[in-house]
Design a protein that fits this description.
Layout (H helix, E strand, L loop, with lengths): L8 H12 L6 E8 L2 E8 L2 H7 L4 E7 L8 H18 L7 E6 L10 H6 L6 H6 L10 E5 L4 H4 L3 H12 L3 E9 L9 E5 L18 H4 L3 E11 H16 L8 H8 L2 H12 L7 E2 L4 H20 L5 H7 L2
Helix pairs in contact: 3-12, 9-11
């Protein structure tokens, strides 16, 4: 429905509401706030909602904290706890439960290195269960982790690598982490999306591969993503919107140019900007200058949330003390 590029369900919902002045049919939305962290739960409940959203049926939870780009230790801990709480609601529990955590992305490209960075901080326990011949433990579950790389370096579809590992190790759940794209610079590196519908590796940079979901892997897939990039057309579109808002207090509202800008919808502005940029190859992918530190910080937040959610006997104090 929209040409504006975003991987976030909350932004797709916002775009529809801006254009149609109503909520998307077949989609349920719930909002809450905890310690200045905004939580938006978008649930696509039927086929009509799925078609309008352009996303599979399922739950999409967005955790937003505007201060994440320069977060202190307390804020990082608060976001980890909120994220763990949301994950616990989605993780199925049963005897002999095991999980495979997959870090998608390219460790040589910083904005795409979120997945591998998270994997380096995950508490892996499957080998311990095997070593001590255990199937159950009251404090932890069996967790394995893999960073499969990207097709450009392996020559193998990421889905095929993960499917082979799933068939061999037989986990009950796959958690996949990847970088995403946003329609707004303000959401880059300040937003975490958790979904129950799987993920397309490489979606953040527009390089879509085969889907990782329950249908392709045979087990439930929880996807965790953080927008680390926007494209130039999206950024320019946002800038025009901000300029229009600023002009409202300084310009003569009767001018034809002002009325034209104000009347244009987001998808119309985006199409125009993209059309202007394309002949020059100027529709590039953009990220923030502090992306190195941001990836380090957010990977720690996500790893902490996953570790706490998966292992019943581990809390934030444990992961901060022993896993970093």
């Amino acid at each position: 429905m929209f040409q504006i590029r975003t991987d976030l369900a909350v932004e797709t919902r916002e775009l529809y509401k801006e254009n149609k002045k109503q909520e998307i049919p077949g989609v349920e939305v719930e909002k809450s706030e905890e310690n200045n962290i905004e939580i938006t739960r978008v649930k696509v409940v039927d086929d009509r909602g799925s078609q309008l959203m352009g996303k599979p049926k399922g739950s999409y939870i967005t955790v937003e904290a505007r201060g994440l780009k320069s977060a202190d230790a307390d804020l990082k801990d608060d976001v980890s706890k909120v994220m763990a709480k949301e994950l616990v609601k989605l993780i199925p529990r049963k005897k002999n439960f095991s999980t495979l955590v997959v870090g998608l992305g390219n460790w040589d490209v910083t904005p795409d290195a979120l997945g591998p960075e998270v994997i380096s901080k995950i508490l892996v326990t499957r080998h311990l269960f095997k070593m001590y011949k255990k199937t159950e433990d009251p404090t932890m579950v069996s967790v394995s982790a893999i960073t499969p790389g990207v097709m450009g370096t392996t020559g193998i579809e990421t889905k095929d690598i993960i499917k082979g590992i799933v068939e061999k190790s037989k986990p009950d759940l796959v958690i996949a982490i990847d970088a995403l794209a946003s329609r707004k610079m303000e959401r880059v590196s300040t937003t975490i999306q958790i979904s129950t519908t799987g993920i397309s590796p490489g979606s953040g940079i527009g390089n879509l591969r085969k889907q990782l979901n329950e249908e392709t892997l045979g087990v439930p897939v929880i996807a965790i993503g953080v927008p680390t990039v926007v494209d130039a057309a999206t950024m320019a579109n946002d800038t025009i919107s901000m300029v229009v808002e600023a002009l409202k207090s300084h310009s003569e509202k009767g001018s034809g140019f002002f009325k034209l800008l104000e009347a244009m919808k987001d998808d119309e502005k985006y199409s125009l900007i993209k059309e202007v940029l394309e002949p020059y190859g100027a529709n590039v992918i953009v990220t923030t200058k502090e992306i190195d530190k941001i990836i380090t910080d957010i990977s720690q937040i996500i790893a902490n949330g996953i570790n706490i959610a998966l292992h019943p006997g581990i809390d934030l104090k444990d992961v901060n003390r022993y896993l970093h």
